[in-house]
User: Which sequence fits this backbone?
C-alpha cells in the first residue's frame, strides 16, 4: 500500500503539488489524469520516492519511503519513466537483466530464468538476443515493461506508457498491463494522457488540476463533461458504453480558457 | 566464439607491444638480448633492458590501465562521452604542485643550472608523492565546489573545466617564471614522460590500484545500471546520489596515481573507453577488461614510438599519445557516425 500524507512538492517560488493526501491500493489499476503541467507526473515520481518533497511523507507499507534504501524500495515498486534511456549497444536480454539489480547481492550472477520469464510474459523472448536499439517503439516499450517485471515488484508505476506509440500499440501496451495486473496481481499506478484510455482501463481515476486532486473515483462515477471542462478546458459529450462502466468522451471543441 | 578470438588478438597485441618496447630504444639491442632477459643469461646489454626498459614497460602498463579505467568510470558516471579524468583537476593540480616544488628547489639552490638544479635538489623520488598530493587536492576542491545538496554531474563537469583552466594558467605562469634554462625538467614532466622511471615509482601505486580494481568489480552492477538514465537507475534500486561520488573518487585516485608516475599523459583516459566500445562487447565487465588491455597497449606503443623515432632524443609518451590519440579519436567519430551511434 502506497500512501501520501500531506504531500507538498515544489521549489522556493513555485508550488507543484499542494498538501496531497491519497491512498493507493496495490489491488487496483489507478490512473492519474490531468492537463499538461498539472503535476500528475510529479505526483507519480514523488510517490515512487524519485522526487524530493517539500513537506509531508510517502508511506510504503507503513514505512516512510524516503528513508528506505533504494534497493528495498525497488524490490516493491518498479517505475517506468516517460522516456527511459538504454545503455548503448546492449541486447534486449542484457538490458532486462538490469531489473534484477535490487535482488542481487555482491558477486551474485543474474538469474537467467527470471529474465526469460519476464520476456516471455511480454512476448519478447524471441527478441532476447537482438540489439535493443534496433527494435520499434512498441517493442522497446515491451522491453522496458519486462525490465520492470524482472524487478518482481508488487506495484508498477508508469509515466505515460503510451506516449510516442500509435493507436494499435497503445492498446497493446494497455492490454499487456491489464493482463499483468490480472495474472500476476501487480498493482498499477499510471499517468495517462487520454481520458478515454483511463476510463477503459482504470479501476480508479484521480483527476489532478493545479497540483491538487479535483476528483477521485471509479470512471463511471467521475467522468463527466463538467470534469473534462474543468480539467482540460475542452467541451465533450460523454457517451456510455454497453456495460455502463466506461464512459466515453467525444470532443466537440475547445473552450476559450 | 567471436569473443574468444577478440580476446586472443587483444592479448597477442599486448604481448607483442611489450616485447617491442623491450627490444627497441635509443641503445641498439636485438631479440637475443631480450630473450636472455627471460632465460637469465645475459650481459651488459641485457642489463640495460632489465634496468631501464623493463620498468618503463611496467610503468606504461600501470599508467595505461589506470588512466583508461578512470576514463571509463568518469564517462559512465557523468554520462558524458567527453569526460577525461585528467581534465578534472588531476593533471592541473599535479602539474602545479610539481612545478611549484621545482621552483622552490631552484630558489633555494640558485647556483646550479638547468636540469641539474632541479633534479639534484628535487629528487625524482619525491615527484610522484608531490604530484599525487596536488592531483588529489585539486580533485577534492572540485568535488567541494560542485557539491550543493547532493551530487550533480553537470556542476562537476563545469567546475572541473573551470578549475583546470585556472590551474593550467598558473602552471604556465610558474614555468615562465622559472628562468628559461631551468624549465627543461618541468616541461619534460608536464608533457607526460616515462623517462628514468624505475620500479620504485611503480610499486607504491600498485596497492591502491589493486584495491580500486576490487572495488570497481564489486560495484559492477551499479556501474552498469548507471548507464541507464538517472531516474531508471534509481528505480531499479541504485542509490545514484551515493554510488556516483564513490565511483568518481575511485576513478580520481586511479588518475592521480597514473599522473604521479608519468605526469599528465593525455588522451588515454578519453579515447580508450571509446576504442573499447567499438571493438568490445557492451557488457560492463567486458568493457572494463577490454579497457585495461587496450589502455596498456596504447601507452606501451606510445612510449616505444616516442623513444625510437628520433634517437637519442626522446619524445615524451604524453605527446605521442596525444598525437596518435587525436586522429584515432577523429577516426572513431567518423566510424561511429557511419554506424549511427554518434548521430
Assistant:
Amino acid at each position: 500500500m502506497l500512501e501520501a500524507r500531506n504531500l507538498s512538492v515544489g521549489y522556493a517560488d513555485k508550488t507543484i503539488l499542494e498538501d496531497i493526501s491519497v491512498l493507493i491500493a496495490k489491488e487496483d489499476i489507478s490512473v492519474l489524469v490531468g492537463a499538461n503541467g498539472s503535476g500528475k507526473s510529479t505526483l507519480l515520481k514523488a510517490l515512487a520516492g524519485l522526487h524530493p518533497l517539500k513537506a509531508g511523507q510517502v508511506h510504503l507499507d507503513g514505512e516512510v519511503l524516503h528513508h528506505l534504501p533504494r534497493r528495498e524500495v525497488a524490490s516493491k515498486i518498479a517505475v517506468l519513466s516517460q522516456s527511459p534511456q538504454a545503455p548503448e549497444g546492449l541486447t534486449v536480454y542484457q538490458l532486462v537483466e538490469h531489473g534484477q539489480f535490487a535482488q542481487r547481492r555482491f558477486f551474485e550472477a543474474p538469474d537467467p530464468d527470471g529474465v526469460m520469464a519476464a520476456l516471455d510474459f511480454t512476448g519478447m523472448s524471441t527478441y532476447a538476443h537482438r540489439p535493443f536499439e534496433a527494435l520499434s517503439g512498441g517493442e522497446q516499450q515491451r522491453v522496458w515493461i519486462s525490465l520492470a517485471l524482472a524487478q518482481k515488484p508488487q506495484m508498477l508505476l508508469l509515466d505515460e506508457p503510451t506516449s510516442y506509440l500509435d493507436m494499435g500499440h497503445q492498446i497493446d501496451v494497455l492490454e499487456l498491463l491489464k493482463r499483468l495486473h490480472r495474472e500476476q496481481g501487480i498493482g498499477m499506478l499510471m499517468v495517462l494522457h487520454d481520458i478515454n484510455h483511463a476510463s477503459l482501463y482504470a479501476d480508479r481515476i484521480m483527476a489532478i488540476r493545479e497540483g491538487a486532486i479535483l476528483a477521485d473515483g471509479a470512471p463511471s462515477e467521475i467522468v463527466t463533461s463538467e470534469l473534462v471542462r474543468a480539467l482540460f478546458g475542452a467541451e465533450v459529450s460523454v457517451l456510455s458504453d454497453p456495460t455502463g462502466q466506461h464512459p466515453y468522451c467525444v470532443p466537440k471543441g475547445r473552450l476559450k480558457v | 566464439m567471436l569473443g574468444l578470438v577478440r580476446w586472443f588478438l587483444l592479448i597477442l597485441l599486448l604481448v607483442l607491444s611489450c616485447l617491442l618496447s623491450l627490444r627497441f630504444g635509443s641503445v641498439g639491442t636485438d631479440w637475443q638480448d631480450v630473450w636472455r632477459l627471460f632465460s637469465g643469461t645475459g650481459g651488459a646489454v641485457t642489463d640495460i633492458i632489465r634496468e631501464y626498459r623493463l620498468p618503463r614497460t611496467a610503468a606504461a602498463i600501470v599508467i595505461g590501465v589506470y588512466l583508461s579505467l578512470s576514463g571509463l568510470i568518469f564517462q559512465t558516471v557523468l554520462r558524458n562521452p567527453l569526460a577525461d579524468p585528467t581534465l578534472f583537476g588531476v593533471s592541473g593540480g599535479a602539474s602545479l604542485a610539481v612545478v611549484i616544488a621545482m621552483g622552490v628547489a631552484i630558489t633555494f639552490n640558485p647556483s646550479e643550472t638547468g636540469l641539474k638544479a632541479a633534479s639534484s635538489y628535487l629528487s625524482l623520488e619525491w615527484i610522484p608523492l608531490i604530484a599525487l598530493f596536488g592531483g588529489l587536492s585539486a580533485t577534492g576542491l572540485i568535488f567541494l565546489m560542485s557539491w550543493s545538496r547532493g551530487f550533480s554531474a553537470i556542476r562537476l563537469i563545469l567546475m572541473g573545466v573551470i578549475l583546470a583552466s585556472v590551474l593550467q594558467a598558473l602552471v604556465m605562469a610558474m614555468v615562465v617564471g622559472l628562468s628559461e634554462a631551468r624549465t627543461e625538467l618541468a616541461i619534460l614532466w608536464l608533457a607526460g614522460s616515462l623517462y628514468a622511471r624505475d620500479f620504485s615509482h611503480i610499486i607504491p601505486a600498485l596497492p591502491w590500484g589493486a584495491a580500486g580494481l576490487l572495488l570497481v568489480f564489486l560495484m559492477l552492477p551499479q556501474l552498469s545500471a548507471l548507464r541507464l538514465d538517472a531516474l531508471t537507475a534509481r528505480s531499479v534500486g541504485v542509490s545514484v546520489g551515493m554510488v556516483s561520488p564513490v565511483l568518481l573518487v575511485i576513478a580520481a585516485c586511479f588518475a592521480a596515481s597514473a599522473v604521479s608516475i608519468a605526469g599528465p599523459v593525455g588522451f588515454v583516459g578519453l579515447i580508450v573507453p571509446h576504442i573499447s566500445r567499438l571493438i568490445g562487447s557492451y557488457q560492463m565487465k567486458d568493457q572494463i577488461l577490454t579497457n585495461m588491455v587496450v589502455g596498456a597497449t596504447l601507452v606501451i606503443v606510445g612510449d616505444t614510438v616516442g623513444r625510437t623515432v628520433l634517437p637519442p632524443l626522446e619524445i615524451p609518451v604524453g605527446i605521442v599519445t596525444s598525437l596518435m590519440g587525436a586522429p584515432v579519436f577523429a577516426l572513431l567519430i567518423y566510424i561511429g557516425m557511419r554506424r549511427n551511434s554518434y548521430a
User: Anything to note?
Assistant: Chain A has nine helices and twelve strands.
